[in-house]
Amino acid sequence: MPATPFRQVTPMLRTPDLGRAIAFYVERLGFVLQRRSDEDGWAALRRDDIELMLATPNAHAGGVPPTFTGSLYFRLDDVGAVDRLWASLEGRARTCYPPETFHYGMHEFGIYDEDGYLLQFGAPASHCDP
Predict the structure, then answer these.
(1) I need a labelling partner for 1 at 20 to 30 A (CA). Which of 10, 27, 35, 78 fits?
(2) DSSP code for 26
(3) Rounded distance, CA 107 to CA 80, Å?
């Protein structure tokens, strides 16, 4: 296979309620709505270097419900940024796990968006447990 360079990946998350999903990402996570088409049922959001798309179920999805079982992992600059973001979200989003420094060297937490997608936020910790 020829080496074709990949430049970027933009997750597209399906949602039955585009307005509710946009509100979550804009109001709680600070994304900016860049484009929205209610006619086509999609929106493009951006925060810093991160792009995210939201889409309502459509013919391209073949009527198959979302089955994404992974998570979106957002890498932040430092532990302080992780803790500040957690402080702004605590009690405003469903928690998967609160901030914790893990043995593999990351300080992170996880929340769920309004459609149940797991969003994790982390940064390298200054130390690792043995």
Answers:
(1) 10
(2) I
(3) 10
Q: What is the pLDDT of residue 64?
A: 62
Instruction: Please tell me the distance from the alpha carbon of residue 120 to that of residue 118, in angstroms, as a whole number.
Output: 6
Kindly report the CATH number assigned to the domain that includes residue 98. Answer: 3.10.180.10
User: DSSP for 31-54?
Assistant: -EEEEEETTTTEEEEEETTEEEEE
Determine the Cα–Cα distance for residues 23 and 14; give it in Å rounded to an integer.
Answer: 15
Within this chain, do residues 85 and 128 fall inside the same structural domain, yes or no?
yes
Mean pLDDT by runs of 10 across the 130 residues of the chain is 81 93 98 96 96 85 68 95 96 97 96 95 76
Q: Which domain holds residue 78?
A: 71-130
pTM: 0.87
The CA distance from 19 to 42, in Å, is: 10
The CA distance from 33 to 53, in Å, is 10
pLDDT of 129? 46
Q: Which residue type does 18 have?
A: L
d(C-alpha 103, C-alpha 18), whole Å? 38
